[in-house]
Amino acid sequence: MNGLTFPTYRGRMEYVCLGCGKRYPIDELLYTCPDCGGVFLLENIDFDALEKHDGAYWRELFDARAASRSTALRGIFRYYELMAPVLEEQDIVYLGEGLTPVVEAAPALRESVGMSFAYKNDGQNPSASFKDRGMACAFSYLKALTRKHGWDEVLTVCASTGDTSAAAALYASYVGAPLKSVVLLPHGKVTPQQLSQPLGSGATVLELPGVFDDCMKVVELLAEQYRVALLNSKNSWRILGQESYAYETAQWYGWNVGNLCLFVPIGNAGNITAIMSGMLKLHRLGVIDRLPRVFGVQSEHADPVYRYYAADPASRRWEPVKVRPSVAQAAMIGNPVSFPRVARLVERYTEVRGADAFQVVEVTEQQIMDAMIRANRHGHIACTQGGECLAGLLRAVELGLVNGKEHAVLDATAHSLKFAGFQDMYFSDTFPPEYGVAPDPALANRPELLLEPSVRAAQDDAAYTKTAAEVIVKRLGLKKKQ
After folding, report:
1. Where are the strands (E) in 266-357, listed by range?
2. Is 154 among the domain residues?
3. Of 317, 321, 299, 301, which is closest to residue 309 (Cα–Cα)?
4. How many CB atoms lie within 10 A of CB 348?
5. pLDDT above 90 (res 185)
6. Do the Cβ atoms of 302 and 334 come closer than 8 Å?
7. Is residue 258's pLDDT more than 90?
8. Structural domain contains residue 182
9. 2 versus 379: which is more confidently predicted?
10. Per the confidence metrics, is the pTM higher than 0.90?
11. What is the pLDDT of residue 358?
């Protein structure tokens, strides 16, 4: 075993349609089944060969690779054999993605919640969101494909509420020709911070009236009729890359995850798909002996998956919903394209772990914002989706769905600075009424102007320093040194 060199193992991968079961080779760009329109999962048909090694072998190998200086093994491809073992080292794109920190909850926050938990800060990826995991895999595959076919130009296209476009544009700008990035955004539905990212990376940024689902339909039409590389969750290579979240979490906890509860915002359902898929692979190889429980979280403003699983199993029927404005913008999706993947993987997951292995909880917009501010008041850097996860944990505690012996891991999918505008609206009580959010006075925070500008203009430096210090002493109640 040598964990410091690039693997020699190669698998054989196929697209597998979850609708009709047909299989297709991976030597072309496919996103949905040409026969029935179903979505794909990628399958390594040589996965059985990995089972000749036991769980101890794989644990030792992945732990050894933590010391690797090989660019190709430093990020998500530390787990090469479990993800896309058809790629050559020269095609792997690495921008520092993956290996994001797991930060245990501040003691005071943990005590107030009533159980131990941690945040996995995926906002500390290169473009400040979890989407970089999937893009690293998708762009590595695109590099290999364009090299194989000798294509002179490929447009990469995605619909986005912010994070996908930022990641796609970043990786496309790094790889360069023959790849060019185009992103479609719902006009007025992306924060200024997120809009600045694809612009800064040089992408062609196109805005359309409507919501994410409208942009997604346009991108899907383009992918069906033109040679473009779709980079949304329908891209099954993206899902593979996002499985690294599961592997990293398991490795951080010493491959002992049976007592973990993973809270994940659902959004387009790609991340929760990847996490279940990744954990199932680890369990199949004996790397972990028990699956963790998985909790999907949705806002009541965009809750189709919650509604589906809240219904009686005998009468469940999938129905998209019309979304309302949500602070968890990345999760404001009424028709998640990866839902068929979720449904299939939930069946497998609950067969292995039991009926309570997968659950969905619903939270309000007020609970999301309160939870985000509350987390960040205790030293975390949670985005609104991270706030959604904490709100989901609080709801699960309230409903008795978790117990004190378990440990929760919350997915903070992006950096809090991407959503600073929502924090400003919370503090200034300027949320539009359709959000249904008002600031909790105990959490609100505003700057205080201590002196009028005219005071500064009227005094020289020495006098102004003394005046300002006196005002601050009075405001803070400071006492002189003895």
Report:
1. 293-299
2. no
3. 317
4. 15
5. no
6. yes
7. yes
8. no
9. 379
10. yes
11. 98
Q: Six-digit token pair at 177?
A: 């020709």
Residue 464 lies in domain: 449-482
User: Residue 1: what pLDDT?
Assistant: 62
Give the separation between CA 273 and CA 343, rounded to whole angstroms: 9
Q: Determine the Cα–Cα distance for residues 135 and 94; give it in Å rounded to an integer.
A: 10
Q: What does the block give as tokens for 113?
A: 């919640």
Residue 291 contacts residue 347 (beta carbons within 8 Å): no
Q: In this structure, is residue 291 part of a structural domain?
A: yes
pLDDT digit string, tens, across residues 280-298: 999 999 999 999 999 999 9
> Residue 119: which pLDDT band, with cuts at 50, 70 and 90?
very high
Q: Assign residue 397 the CATH number of its domain.
A: 3.40.50.1100
Q: Is the pLDDT of residue 438 over 80?
A: yes
How many domains does one find in the chain? Answer: 2
CA–CA dist 331, 213 (Å, integer)? 11
Residue 169 has a CB neighbour count (10 Å cut-off) of: 28
> What are the C-alpha distances in Å from 415 to residues 76, 260, 381, 384, 474?
19, 23, 6, 9, 36
Mean pLDDT (whole number) for 409-438: 94
Helix (H) or strand (E) holding 180: strand 179-186
| Residue 172 resides in a domain | no
Place of tokens 């659950």: 359
Print burial letters for 238-270: b (CB count within 10 Å at least 16), e (below 16): bbbbbbbbbbbbbbbbebebeebbbbbbbbbbb
Instruction: Give the whole-angstrom CA distance, residue 467 versus residue 449.
Output: 14
Split at pLDDT 50, 70, 90, the class of 107 is: very high
Q: At what angle do helices 163-175 and 131-149 cross, to 10 degrees?
A: 40
Cα 22 from chain centre: 29
